[in-house]
Design goal:
alpha/beta, TIM Barrel, 8-stranded parallel sheet, about 10% strand
Length: about 280
């Protein structure tokens, strides 16, 4: 039996899905999302599943503003035992946030279903080939620069974007075409505008308002807004107090076309989706 048949999954994007963030790191921007052992990460993922998550997103390398690259060996040591441990105890779809083809191959072999690549498969030339071979879903995200410095340039250059929504849409359209050329099926492609990745507060707001233009490209859209800096700018709240702002932002994001919301707080977003659905009937 092939790996694809063993671990294959088909998503129904007709209603919003919740992707739970489980960071296998000790330096992610939100302290409550960090884990220090594989066992703790697996338990957090199982709790997220119990709370109603549709997908678990594991990551072994922080991509917060200012973060350094992590070596391939270190990333594998952080994330592979967690994927293996969770898969032994759950059949819930697994996403892994990585930019490295070797890491992608290892976690896909271990039971992951999605590769969430913040570089849209540009950082590693082998990534698309690996994802195509496994029939994996891929999340293609827009960013400018690298995590260490990506939030510096937008504030230093007045015209970093002339039309952020159009430019992000054009980039993601090209990334999707490049992925299909590498053998990835069109129904396995998910787009992410990369809120907070080389953008100002104004840029981030424009992207959330303009999600319908990204959906018009014909692919599902994922948004990662959870507790991010732009919410702090709007509300004046620190990271630990941004849940209400996150819920509001994700509600607008779903209304504007987001199919997947990537969050730290699963239970609260399950309630959000239930109430939103009931009031929309």
């Amino acid at each position: 039996m092939s790996i694809e048949k063993m671990w294959g999954v088909n998503f129904d994007f007709s209603t919003p899905l919740i992707m739970s963030i489980v960071n296998c790191t000790n330096d992610s921007f939100y302290a409550d999302s960090r884990t220090w052992t594989a066992e703790y990460a697996v338990e957090k993922a199982l709790q997220a599943e119990a709370d109603g998550a549709d997908i678990i997103d594991f990551g072994g390398e922080s991509t917060r503003p200012g973060a350094e690259y992590v070596s391939e060996d270190e990333e594998l040591a952080r994330v592979l035992p967690v994927v293996e441990g969770f898969r032994r105890r759950s059949s819930l779809p697994i996403s892994v946030d990585t930019r490295k083809a070797t890491v992608a191959q290892a976690v896909l072999s271990a039971g992951a279903n999605i590769i969430n690549d913040v570089s849209a498969m540009e950082d590693d030339s082998g990534m698309a080939r690996v994802c195509a071979a496994y029939g994996a879903y891929v999340v293609l995200m827009h960013k400018r620069g690298v995590p260490k410095t990506m939030q510096t340039a937008p504030y230093e250059v007045a015209s970093f974007y002339k039309d952020v929504v159009s430019e992000v849409a054009a980039y993601l359209k090209t990334a999707a075409e490049r992925s299909k050329d590498a053998g990835i099926a069109s129904d396995r492609i998910i787009l992410d505008p990369g809120v907070g990745f080389g953008k100002t507060v104004r840029d981030n707001i424009a992207l959330i308002r303009g999600l319908v233009r990204l959906r018009a490209l014909g692919y599902p859209v994922l948004i990662g807004l959870s507790r991010k800096t732009f919410i702090g700018h709007i509300t004046g709240r620190n990271i630990s107090d941004r849940l209400a702002g996150t819920l509001a932002a994700n509600a607008i994001g779903m209304t504007n076309g987001a199919n997947i919301i990537r969050v730290h707080d699963v239970k609260e977003h399950v309630d959000l989706i239930k109430v939103r659905h009931s009031l929309s009937l």
